[in-house]
Design goal:
With 251 residues, the protein is an alpha/beta fold. It has 10 helices and 9 strands. Strands 3-2-1-7-8-9 form a 6-stranded parallel β-sheet, sandwiched between helices. Strands 5-4-6 form a 3-stranded antiparallel β-sheet. Bound molecules: adenosine-5-diphosphoribose.
Length: 251
């Protein structure tokens, strides 16, 4: 067995022995569903757009036409995707007592669609939108229809501007972030597919006592992690799942 596989085997044992784990996912777990991540060289979204320019409260409040002409279509591409093997394995691990819950920076709802029950979406989601004046909630499909009918910026019947329920640059983080920081102080943390460069999301791994990382590239937290598996999320999780199934049979 190669050293590489030996390490992955030991990582699987570590996962099994210290279960249940809290999972923190970033855009890297959804690239295999066809959604570009943000910071991978060449393919990352922020190589094409300046996030502060298009997905910020500054632009939404002061240039809603720019937000809805440029930013909104970028957001809506996240809704085309379907869960991949990695999302599916994590949902299975939750039902097998290996995962306590998933904290995700992703707004694509793929963990929920894959069957994960306990999901904390700390950057919001793309299922609904709300009026910034009267706070009425509507479905994102309704908001999309307003934008498609070139009602830009889309307005509520009270006259207020409507916005998607994602966390934009400049927004306060939702209450799920505080829940996430509490959860990660009680259970070991496995990070999957995040550069861990964005604060305050990267406060989460700094609070973890036990840390494991699965990522294509290195992260600022690699030195803190007991195991760092550099590779694709679905490939790594599939290998770990096969090893854990052997341990489950022996248990
Ligand atoms: N498997 C594992 N890792 C992957 C894969 C893959 N298939 N594809 C990409 N990666 C890794 C990349 O190497 C990168 O380190 O996932 C990481 C993705 O990092 P980012 O693009 O920075 O995405 P993320 O960490 O989720 O960004 C956090 O920044 O712009 C904000 O709100 C946005 O939620 C986002 C936040």
């Amino acid at each position: 067995m190669s050293l590489h596989n030996e390490i992955q085997k030991k990582a699987a044992e570590h996962l099994w022995l210290n279960r249940p784990w809290v999972i923190l996912t970033g855009a890297g777990i959804s690239t295999e569903s066809g959604i570009p991540d943000f910071r991978s060289p060449q393919t990352g979204l922020w190589n094409q757009y300046d996030p502060m320019e298009i997905l910020s409260t500054e632009v939404l409040f002061n240039q809603p036409e720019l937000f809805y002409k440029i930013g909104f279509p970028v957001l809506m591409q996240f809704k085309q995707a379907r869960p991949n093997l990695a999302h599916g394995i994590l949902a299975g691990w939750e039902s097998r007592g290996i995962v306590k819950g998933v904290i995700t920076q992703n707004i694509d709802s793929l963990h929920i669609e894959a069957g994960s029950k306990r999901v904390l979406e700390i950057h919001g989601h793309l299922r609904t939108a709300h009026c910034m004046k009267c706070l009425r909630t509507i479905s994102i499909e309704k908001l999309e229809s307003f934008v498609r009918d070139v009602q830009i910026p889309p307005r509520c019947r009270c006259g207020g501007i409507l916005r998607p329920d994602v966390v934009l640059f400049g927004d306060m983080l939702p209450s799920s972030f505080e829940q996430a920081t509490k959860l990660v102080q009680k259970f070991p943390l496995l990070v999957i597919g995040s550069s861990l460069q964005v604060s305050p999301a990267n406060l989460i791994p700094s609070l973890a006592e036990k840390l494991m990382i699965i990522n294509l590239e290195e992260t600022p937290f690699d030195k803190k992690a007991a195991f760092v598996l550099n590779g694709k999320a679905s490939t790594m999780l599939h290998f770990l799942d096969e090893e854990i199934k052997k341990l489950e049979e022996k248990a």
